[in-house]
Amino acid sequence: MPDLISALHIAAPEATLAVGGLVLLVFGAFAGDKATKLVSAAAVLLLIVASVLAGVGPLGAAFDGAYVADPLAVYGKILIFLSSAVAIVLGGGWIGRERIARFEFPILIVLASAGMGMMASSGDLISLYVGIELHSLALYVLAAFHRDNLKASEAGLKYFVLGALSSGLLLYGASLIYGFTGSMRFEDIAAVASQSDVGPGLIFGLVFLICGLAFKVSAAPFHMWTPDVYEGAPTPVVALFATAPKVAAMVLITRVLEGAFAGAHAQWSQVVILIALASFVVGSFGGLAQKNIQRLLAYSSIINIGYALLAIAAGTTLGVKAMLLFMTLYVIDQFGFFSILLSLARGGKPVREIAGLAGLKADKPLTAVALTILALSVLGMPPLSGFWAKWAVFGASVNAGYWMAAAAGLVASVVSAFYYLRVIKLMWFDAAPEGTVPTDAAPFEAKWIGWLCAAFAFPLVIIGLIWLEPLTQAAAAGFGAG
User: Fold this and answer.
1) In degrees rounded to 5, what are phi and psi of residue 62?
2) Which among 36, 76, 241, 448 could bridge 101 via Cys, Cβ 3.0 to 4.6 Å?
3) Distance (Å, rounded) from C-alpha 86 to C-alpha 348?
4) Which letter does DSSP use for residue 182 in this model?
């Protein structure tokens, strides 16, 4: 019993979310949809409490090494839980305006967050799979949450079917790894992988595992679900997809590759670099032909995940630090983009086509300024936050000797600059077509979250880096030291 109490103490963030989510579910079942706002507020509070517990809780391993709490997991979980809380705030206003308010919406995000927290703390292949499936099942439902909308239903179905395929790849890889190492625990796998005579069977299993995980972060060539799901799913749900789950998956990939398979870096780094290069090509060129803003952001996410994978491929503490810094700044930029997108509507219809941004400077100048800052940040224009994110990634890659891959990432940034600059051109230099109705009053939460994210992208990032740098360094240096 003392061991169980100690384990639950270490796993308090996920336990809090799981128990709290079930309590909210029972409450919502009795109170009905009229209690949606109250459930949403309680869910946000629950996520904030979980992030505090993650930050102040004890470090260590629990459940026979299946759950690991170390500085890397702590940093990842705080970012995940706070991102989920912001998604609930954005989504709460949206489901109310769309008149599809359901108390299940915030509860699904809470349960998904519990799964994402488990992903960040996975210490073996079982907890890895349980965490992935727990968060994925909730996200499948969220993708199709607007069930009267045909595109949302299609998005949910595509995400579910392709997600099942990726789970099959992941499970097959996990079974091969278990078969060739005789253990599910990352520590035991690391002992086998560090031997000089690592067999092709184990590497084969690792490749399948990487493929399954690459799907979760929408890295090419496993990105096929991303554009359709981003376009069809509700905008606040897409904001969640673009942030918290990607952070959880990147932390999990770090645990698998730089923890369990640190000794096989020469083998897996080649695969990760190829995936990163493919993501550069697909993300940069695929976005050129897009007319829908959410599809454009889907291709933007593909290329940006390529940068994060490039940092992991370095296989160094500097690479882990660069990945964490990149993902943190990326999450803030993405929330800014989607918040502003949620704030734009004309005549009650949301602006989702890129052409609909024409003349925005005359209608909503502050929003146009914020969107310009965010576009330049994601582009990587100095001294905005995106520049520092890419600087860290390219620095880690070059430091590890992968300067050609870093050069490819730089070229991809130049290509993708076209569709970011096109957005800016439409807002500031093109006039709105005749007969275009003015934009509607922006929802309070979407407008202010968008503006705050843009303000952080520049100029607040200069101050933010003062504390982000040491935090990411401590998280990277403490990887595995729970």
Assistant:
1) -140, 165
2) 36
3) 24
4) S
CA dist list (Å): 239 to 198, 245, 298, 425: 41, 10, 11, 24
Given a cut of 90, whether residue 346 has pLDDT beyond it is: no
- Chain centroid, CA 371 distance in Å: 20
Q: What are phi and psi of 384, to 5 degrees?
A: -75, 170
Provide CB contacts within 8 A for 27, sequence distance 6+.
35, 39
Q: At what angle do helices 317-343 and 461-477 cross, to 10 degrees?
A: 140
Beta bridge partners of 181: none
Task: Kindly provide the b/e burial profile for residues 114-151, where b requires at least 16 CB atoms within 10 angstroms of the residue's own CB.
Answer: bbbbbbbbbbbbebbbbbbbbbbbbbbbbbbbbeebee
Instruction: Report how far residue 460's alpha carbon sits from residue 453's, in angstroms, rounded to the nearest whole number.
Output: 9
| 8 Å CB contact between 211 and 169 | yes
Angle formed by the axes of helices 385-399 and 293-313, to 10°?
A: 30
Q: Which two tokens stand for residue 341?
A: 């997108």
342: exposed, middle or buried (C-beta count within 10 Å: 0-12, 13-18, 19+)? buried
The span from the CA of 304 to the CA of 200, in Å, is: 31
Give the residue carrying structure tokens 């609930």: 88
Tell which residue, 218, 313, 248, 258, has the closest CA to residue 109. Answer: 248
Distance CA 243, CA 301 (A): 10
Asked if 67 and 128 count as a contact pair (C-beta separation under 8 A), the reply is no
How many Å apart are CA 256 and CA 250, to the nearest integer? 10
Give residue-wise pLDDT tens across range 404-429.
989 999 999 999 888 889 889 988 88
Tell me the C-alpha distance between 109 and 398, whole Å.
38
Element (H, E) at 62: strand 60-62
Q: Is residue 37's pLDDT more than 50?
A: yes
- Convert the pLDDT of each residue in 17-34 to its tens digit: 999 999 999 999 998 888
Could you tell me if 159 and 225 are in contact, meaning their C-beta atoms sit under 8 angstroms apart? Answer: yes
Helix H or strand E segment including 350: strand 349-350
* Cα 412 from Cα 282, distance rounded (Å): 10
pLDDT digits (tens, 9 = 90+) for 446-464: 889 999 999 999 899 999 9
From CA 100, how far away is CA 153, in angstroms rounded? 14
- For 18-32, 35-49, 155-169, which range has the lowest pLDDT when averaged over its residues? 155-169
* Measured distance CA(164)–CA(248) in Å, rounded: 19
Q: Are 374 and 337 in contact (CB under 8 A)?
A: yes
